[in-house]
Amino acid sequence: MDVVIKESLTEKYLNDLVSAAKDFVFSHGVIMRRRDGLSSADDVQHAPFALFPSSIPRVCFDQAVAVHTDFNLLMHRIAHDRAFLADCLKSVIRVDDFTKRIWEIYETVQSEGVRQPLCLSMNRSDYMIDCRSTSSPDGSYQTTVHRNVALRQIEFNTMAASFAGLSQKLHLYHKFILGLIGSEDKISQIPVNNSADGLAEGLAAAWKHYGNPNAVILFLVYNDERNIYDHRWLEYSVYDIDVHIKVIRKSMMDVQQSGRLSTDHCLFVDDLEVAVVYQRSCYVPADFDTEELWKCRLMMERSKAIICPNAGYHLAGTKKVQQVLAQPGIVERFITDKCAAERIRATFAEQFSLDMNEEGDKNVTMALNNPQRFVLKPQREGGGNNTYGDEIKTLLTTIRDSEERSSYVLMERIEPLTVSGYPVSPGMPVELTRMISELGIYGMLVGTKDKIFLNKQTGYLLRTKKVGTNEGGVATGYSVLDTPFLVD
Questions:
Q1: Is 232 exposed, middle or buried (0-12, 13-18, 19+ CB in 10 A)?
Q2: Which residues is 484 bridged to in the sheet?
Q3: How sure is the predictor about 475, in pLDDT bands with cuts at 50, 70 and 90?
Q4: Of the residues 121, 162, 227, 455, which is catalytic?
Q5: 162 an active-site residue?
Q6: Annotation says 370 is catalytic
Q7: Which terminus of the chain has fewer Cβ atoms in its 10 Å neighbourhood, N or C?
Q8: 463 given a catalytic annotation
């Protein structure tokens, strides 16, 4: 498979390239705040990144791009199907308090009557390249003979799909580095990435549909946010679309203290009417450590503001929904276009229920007998939550007779495509490393239950990590930002 660099670099040449690379990413805002300086804009470091773009089969990239608007429509319809969500999540909400609380908010709003029919989805579908592989005949560290390459969906993120801002900037860096090493002829193998601009189009469109030019877009964030510059690039893309749109940043605590509903259920924060709430926080139980914060989430959902994601979309993005979708006939319940349904199903990995029934018992036994084949996933976002290998056996042995096991799903473990690259992380040596990549495709949809105004695929994210690292996520420290180098 074609690669950017086919040989090891001399120490001096590598150091020179790394120095030029860091200058570029700092100059273009591919940065994060340091962990020990979260509150200060004066204490930043570059985001972890790959020195060179990583090879991805073009056929897999094109497949992921082509199917995304199908997934947008699928998730939109699931988010509006109360009966399906109730049946799908009934075993989870009995044992998972966080999912139960989101469900209760959803049910309350549905029962009272939805005051804002318009939805905004800003999402990312994550994939790995599944590849049954064998080493090349010469045992080379850098090349692998790949067969049976297949795109496999890892998850569909409806909540806080991050790094659109930094990823859009990083693909410019990788074009720069190819020119620097004399590979200008390969720049065309890097696909254009307008991820932040595309998501910003969704925000601006939702704001316009709200109908009040004086209303604001609220980014719901953490007070101490390492990844603030990724947020900012998205905010600046909104301004590029319409300079009259005002974006404010508030934490859930801020909204709880200064937010209110008017008599006609408009949401106000600091006496500013809010048209759109874009949630970049509030996706883990620790974000709701008081009952008042749960009441605040309910207040927002009850309002006329466009919540991204609303409770329905939040629930649609759970791992349990992903597992149920893999069952025969479920996709077709929502997608009647046969070709679209086939495109969606072609990306699915095998998923297994752990509900308290005969099928669940069978799947628990299967996982205990061969834990290396699977990943055990709870209903959580944000990285660092999954269980692998022998730890699956330990956990399932503990909970196999408890309803707690119903809060997990079992997924086949991917055998990913391997590449060689140079990860550049702050404070770490830059060395040739065997790596695997996870491809994310961004999308956005604006519409009501029955009418779609916008449905677009809006760019990509590539995250690459060292072979043997189970979890992904740049913000959580497992991966580096990367760019696809498309190969045939």
A1: middle
A2: 54
A3: low
A4: 162
A5: yes
A6: no
A7: C
A8: yes
